[in-house]
Specification:
Length: 256
């Protein structure tokens, strides 16, 4: 909120919460309640919960994702990479180095941390992309017989995508679900689609939005626009998410 009226509306909501707690004789852990101020024009208003002032916070975790007051994801990327490397270190103790053993362990125990809710916290800087990719780089070197190959060749031998391409795949699948699946109302708010009968393009081009802050280009609705517009028509017109994933996989495999 960047206006006094907006700040007052939030405070009224906190007051209603306090009244509800007192009415039903419940206890609220106010020490766990903090305020995360977002935006350059934020007045940094001091909020109260009952008679207690709420502390300000520079970063908070929500559903396992660490978000700071500048909407940067470097802390989250570092946290995920550290956790994934720790699990990968435990996998190293496994005696077998075959694909039948390592691949299920990696996908079940490591990659889920690298891809959990990644559409929200996708890395915004090259250093963070390299930090995450380094985890999979180490995992591919664990396979016996592939140590002499470069990273791209190891991925090809193992039938894996790079994490960057995996994130792109997830972005496109979620965009398809919004536009073609059961989330039309939400999709209408996230994306602006310009239907077209022209033979050039896929016929469902997203409208490129303008933004003032350079960081906004990393947000999901903005970064997915250009890759979506480059998809072939037969991929975009897939009748179901399963068929879309199959056709999308073929397109991504053709990319270097």
């Amino acid at each position: 909120m960047d206006t006094p009226e907006g700040c007052a509306a939030i405070q009224r909501g906190l007051d209603r919460l306090e009244s509800w707690v007192q009415r039903y004789l419940m206890k609220l852990s106010k020490g766990k309640c903090r305020v995360l101020h977002l935006g350059r024009n934020n007045p940094v208003h001091q909020y109260r919960l009952g008679g207690d002032l709420l502390e300000n916070s520079s970063a908070e975790r929500d559903l396992g994702v660490l978000l700071d007051d500048k909407l940067a994801m470097s802390q989250q990327c570092a946290l995920v990479a550290k956790k994934a490397k720790g699990i990968l270190g435990c996998i190293r103790s496994v005696a077998s180095r075959t694909r039948e053993v390592l691949h299920p362990l990696y996908t079940a125990l490591v990659s889920l941390h690298l891809e959990y809710c990644v559409q929200f916290w996708a890395p915004q800087f090259k250093k963070d992309e390299k930090l995450l990719e380094r985890v999979q780089w180490r995992a591919t070197r664990m396979r016996r017989g592939l140590e002499h190959l470069c990273y791209k060749e190891r991925l090809r031998e193992l039938g894996l995508f790079s994490l960057e391409k995996r994130r792109l795949r997830g972005d496109l699948i979620n965009a398809y679900k919004y536009l073609q699946g059961g989330c039309q109302e939400e999709g209408a708010r996230l994306f602006s689609v310009v239907p077209s009968n022209r033979t050039r393009g896929n016929g469902h081009r997203m409208k490129q939005r303008k933004f003032h802050l350079n960081m906004r280009k990393n947000f999901f609705p903005l970064r997915v626009t250009e890759p979506w517009n480059r998809l072939p028509r037969e991929v975009v017109d897939s009748p179901s998410p399963e068929i879309f994933k199959t056709r999308l996989h073929k397109v991504l495999c053709s990319l270097l």
